[in-house]
Amino acid sequence: MDNPWLERRNHMEPMPIQPEAVSAVAGAIGMAMILILVLVGLVVYLFGCFCMAHIAKKMGMSFWTSFIMAIIPIANLILLAQMANKPIWWFVLMLIPLVNIVIFIILWMAISERLGKPGWWGVIIGLIFIPFVNLVSCVFFLILTFSAAPATIKQQPTA
What we know:
By secondary structure, this protein is mostly helical. Helix content is about 70%, strand content about 0%.
């Protein structure tokens, strides 16, 4: 045989690996992994927005308006304040570091109580940013979302 590659295959010798091929394959695998992570993150974000809009619907708000507000970063803080029956200016408090943690917990406590659940559920949901606690927080968030309990509607306070 005249072709050295065919002779090597016939003798079961390993073929030399081309460095360019390895880097191209590694780059493609890396890009595929990043794309998958971005898509999974987008699906989780949209599902969280859906859950927030579903909770808002239980409180008498329009689902689609709430869903659009939940998608927009600052508007979702306003939606959260509206669902907790707090003044809209509370979203400003959510922009202050460390204060936002306390306000986030207070808002979720109020939302939990409006949905007929104990206030401590809001504490657990409010701690969603802590590793491992966030898994429990997600379960409580889903229970709030898909439970059949209607919300108690109160008049929103004026500023």
